[in-house]
């Protein structure tokens, strides 16, 4: 039986744009773009894990907002259960400590990047949720 790993991802939004982070050339899915985040450790909640990962990867102190969506897929012989959370507020100067590059783009423009396959359904869910929220605010 394949090992299942819970992973959290941040859809960080600022001024209508979202953050994409490029995976380093060494390691799994090298060079692909993703939402930053990482593994949930032990007894951490998903928001706790995401706040820790964003501190480790981007040197920011994030306020984890609403849950967006989850997606499961096989990657390198493991089942990755990826959970996306919206982050609209953070403190600190963002630095790419674990990624080769960072990019801000409009959500629809993110499809122009070579996204990690597991992140695509999360982006689609975020865009649907965002559209529903925008329509509901009229």
TrEMBL record:
Its EC number is 3.-.-.-, 3.6.1.-. Keywords: DNA damage, DNA repair, Hydrolase, Magnesium, Metal-binding. It is an enzyme of class 3 (hydrolase). Pfam families: NUDIX_4 (PF14815). Residues 2-128 form the Nudix hydrolase domain. GO terms for biological process: DNA repair. Its cofactor is Mg(2+). Belongs to the Nudix hydrolase family. PANTHER family: 8-OXO-DGTP DIPHOSPHATASE, CTP PYROPHOSPHOHYDROLASE. This is 5-methyl-dCTP pyrophosphohydrolase. The lineage of its organism: Bacteria, Pseudomonadati, Pseudomonadota, Gammaproteobacteria, Enterobacterales.
